[in-house]
Amino acid sequence: MTPQAAAQNWGTRSFLREHFFEPGLSPEDAVARIKQTAEGLHDMREMLETMSWRYVMFYIRLKQAYLDQDLKTAMSTLPDNLRNDYIKVANELVDNMTDFDRYVRTPKVYESYLYYEKTLKSIDQLVAILA
């Protein structure tokens, strides 16, 4: 594999889209990355308890950038009867992560925990639909 071909598998710096080239993942890889994101969000509880707001903000924004593309790609793996439920839960997840990010930036502790729990609930429902 040439270095350029290897770079296309994980993305390279470019000014085409938000300063980074994001290669398209296969639907199975997108589902795997969504599941990995769910595990990462569950492991983030310690950062919230120690009020490491900067790290929480960085992690949320990084995952939001990937989830946008992965949610669209992963939908192609679902049968038609599950797509409406998937779209509803995916929209709820995006809304909850946006609110979570907003309250972490303020930082409002109670609201941050509240939207963290709502985000976990939404992503767990999404993983259950994808499984």
Automatic annotation (TrEMBL):
Question: Which PANTHER family does this one have?
Answer: OXYGEN-EVOLVING ENHANCER PROTEIN 3-1, CHLOROPLASTIC, PHOTOSYNTHETIC NDH SUBUNIT OF LUMENAL LOCATION 2, CHLOROPLASTIC
What protein name applies here?
Photosynthetic NDH subunit of lumenal location 2, chloroplastic
Concerning Gene3D superfamilies, the annotation shows: Oxygen-evolving enhancer protein 3 (PsbQ), four-helix up-down bundle
Q: Name one Pfam family in it.
A: PsbQ
Q: What organism is listed for this UniProt entry?
A: Stylosanthes scabra
Report the principal subcellular site: plastid
Q: Which keywords does this Swiss-Prot/TrEMBL entry list?
A: Chloroplast, Membrane, Plastid, Thylakoid, Transit peptide
Top-level taxon:
Eukaryota
Which compartments is it annotated to reside in? Plastid, Chloroplast thylakoid membrane
Family listed: Belongs to the PsbQ family.
Q: Which N-terminal residues, if any, form the signal peptide?
A: none
